[in-house]
């Protein structure tokens, strides 16, 4: 079945911008639609349709970053109408803002001290769009500026978010209901949503998360999605661990991940 799945993925890759139905795909690779749908999702974490949607979104993003008009980018990627593209919040921030790495978007951000070091939190009018952790304020600011080089970045205190982040790091309160404004593929968003459902003080292995989202074979992809998480703590990727009990990776350093887990477990008792 592995060869069939690779053939199916290659078939979709060769027809990016087209709409390939499940029946057409199954016929092209010699499999039943039902079994192909199920096995494709197990192997790659998304259905064939969502796989196509993710590639269309990436095509739109690339075109927007290269300065294409929004309508041209959307139709060239294979969307039949602008409304089809806007059915789901694919980009996080609106397409006209994403077009030039946040151009025209007003993003407030704040750097503040916590028991784990320095935290940077950035928000749009829709929610938190970035949370970064470190020891050097200037470095965190540079990372944000590189990611959103054309946005209007305004440094100012964001007391309501700062207080909630400090409380969370101290093992008190929750960030599970904090609104976010983040970009990601269909698969990444499913992983991030699963992470937000993990109770404080508990962990899940990458394998368990993969099974929860219906993609038991996509363990490595789950790890990659955790690494791509733009809002540390709010999407608690520090609660994802290896099957053997090891911590796995963490973008902000394993000592920080270890400390966060220790704080959460201690407060849970």
Helix count? 13
Strand order of the largest sheet: 3-2-1-4
Radius of gyration: 20 Å
Unreliable runs: 95-100
Q: Approximately what portion of the residues adopt beta-strand conformation? A: 5-15%
Mean pLDDT over all positions: 82
Gross morphology: globular
H-E string: HHHHHHHEEEHEHHEHHEH
Q: Major beta sheet, specifics?
A: 4 strands, mixed
* Structural class designation: alpha/beta
Q: How many beta strands in the DSSP annotation? A: 6
Helical residue percent band: 40-55%
Could you explain how this protein is built, in words?
Helix content is about 50%, strand content about 10%. By secondary structure, it is an alpha/beta fold. A 4-stranded mixed beta sheet has the order 3-2-1-4. A two-stranded parallel ribbon has the order 5-6. Strand 1 (about 105-115) and strand 2 (about 115-125) form a beta hairpin. The termini are far apart.
């Amino acid at each position: 079945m592995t060869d069939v799945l690779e053939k199916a993925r290659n078939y979709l890759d060769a027809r990016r911008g087209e709409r390939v139905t499940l029946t057409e795909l199954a016929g092209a690779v010699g499999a039943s639609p039902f079994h192909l749908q199920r096995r494709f999702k197990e192997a790659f974490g998304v259905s064939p349709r969502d796989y196509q949607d993710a590639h269309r979104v990436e095509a739109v993003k690339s075109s927007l970053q290269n300065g294409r008009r929004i309508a041209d980018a959307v139709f060239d990627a294979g969307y039949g109408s602008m409304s089809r593209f806007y059915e789901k919040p694919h980009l996080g921030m609106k397409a006209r803002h994403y077009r030039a790495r946040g151009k025209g978007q007003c993003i407030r951000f704040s750097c503040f001290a916590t028991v784990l070091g320095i935290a940077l939190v950035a928000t749009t009018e829709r929610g938190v769009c970035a949370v970064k952790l470190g020891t050097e304020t200037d470095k965190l600011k540079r990372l944000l500026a590189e990611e959103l080089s054309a946005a209007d970045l305004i440094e100012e205190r964001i007391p309501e978010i700062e207080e909630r982040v400090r409380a969370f790091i101290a093992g008190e309160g929750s960030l599970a209901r904090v609104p976010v404004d983040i970009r990601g593929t269909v698969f990444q968003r499913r992983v991030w949503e699963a992470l937000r459902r993990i109770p404080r003080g508990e962990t899940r292995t990458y394998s368990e998360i993969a099974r929860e989202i219906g993609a038991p074979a996509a363990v490595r992809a789950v790890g990659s999605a955790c690494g791509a998480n733009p809002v540390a703590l709010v999407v608690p990727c520090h609660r994802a661990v290896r099957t053997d009990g090891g911590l796995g990776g963490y973008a902000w350093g394993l000592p920080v991940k270890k400390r966060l887990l220790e704080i959460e477990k201690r407060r849970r008792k």
